[in-house]
Design goal:
Blueprint: E1 14-15, H1 21-52, H2 57-64, E2 67-68, E3 77-78, H3 79-104, H4 111-138, H5 154-164, H6 170-194, H7 201-219, H8 225-242, H9 247-256, H10 269-293, H11 300-306, H12 310-337, E4 341-342, H13 348-357, H14 363-372, H15 377-404, H16 406-417, H17 434-466
Helix pairs in contact: 1-5, 1-6, 1-10, 3-6, 3-9, 3-10, 4-6, 4-12, 7-8, 7-9, 8-9, 11-15, 12-13, 12-15, 13-15, 14-15
Length: 469
Amino acid sequence: MPAPPPAPTAIKRKVLGRLSLPERNFVAEALRTETLGGVLLLLAAIAALIWANSGWKDSYESVRDFHFGPASLGLDLSIGHWAADGLLAVFFFVAGIELKRELVAGDLKDPRAAVLPVVAALCGMAVPALVYTLVSSTGGGSLAGWAVPTATDIAFALAVLAVIGTSLPSALRAFLLTLAVVDDLFAILIIAVFFTDHLDFAALGGAVVGLAIFWLLLRRGVRGWYVYVPLALVIWGLMYNSGIHATIAGVAMGLMLRCTTHEGEAHSPGEHIEHLVRPLSAGFAVPLFALFSAGVAVSGNAIGEVFTRPETLGVVLGLVVGKAVGIFGGTWLAARFTRAELSEDLAWPDVFAVSSLAGIGFTVSLLIGELAFEGDEVLTDEIKAAVLTGSLIAAVFASVLLKVRNAKYRKLCEAEELDEDLDGIPDIYEQDNPEYHLRMADIYERKAAEHRRLAEVTAGASEENNGPA
């Protein structure tokens, strides 16, 4: 009796494999803007620290605490408050569009592909929260700041990559971007659920009605910024007065935009609006927030207290240790239990390096720190100092790890960019296309003919020079 044929070997899914060409182009465009915004964010944070620790410290506080706005509408806010609740709504609006796009057209569309970044992001938030809780409770500190080290700042992380000059492959950059998108989603949920002390149901009802009108106008295809911008401001104001953090309004409106293309459309409305608003978010809103949030007093004693006070030490360890261990562990577990394989171009130390880079938790961490310790100005400033310190340590640690592998990354990036047939499509994406191989054969034949012609010319010149006088 013949033996039964062997069972076919299941094809294992690749973890952090090569992106599709459209996804690669989208990621490249998105990260280009975020990188520039990250550099501006870094400069704004440095300017805030210098200003707040110089002889003009009083002027910094005066500007930050200057109030303006219609008091009758409950919006007589300080400049720092406007930056945190107003400008960051633009940041979260872009985050909402990014999340919607990931859900309908990106990595999160396929549940099997979504498992990895979702699990990695969840572990990358749970472990830092656990680290903070253990450190703070052991030292007898407050547990109110458990959410501070859970956030990742994609713009700041990309600014670090730009400064150290590493050539990170597109798959790792996309992984970092998707992590940040999922991270932002859960950060939004944390802010909405855990930092809402009271509710004004009339204002909340008005915000919901405004969102419903916003959605209806989008579905009817109504166009014109003069319609949506005033409506968005009304929704934001009502959401602020409802007691729920006003940035939630930005996310909700971002999620309502259509991020799939219809026939005849080169880009979806969501992508078009994101392309317009992202520079405003990355180049203005977030840096201005950093300018009025990162200005904390820095001294030898203050830095020493960061590593001795349980709340601040919990934030530092949560960002530096918790983020790296959580994201790396979540990625490894997701790959292990889904029987996926890491791309042959990468190694697990690469994943750990990117996980360490995600420990840069600047913008949202500062925001959550302000919400968690509202009313305690001293502890709020100390938490901000801890966020800055932890982000700096994570940036330096990740930079060292990434630099070690930079030669390998450079080769991968060069292979991704190579376009010898000059058709605008990297050759690596055309390897299975017969027409590509015909074009390359023609190119190689023309190059060979050129080399032969040059050799003949050189040989003729040599004979002429060596001939009889």
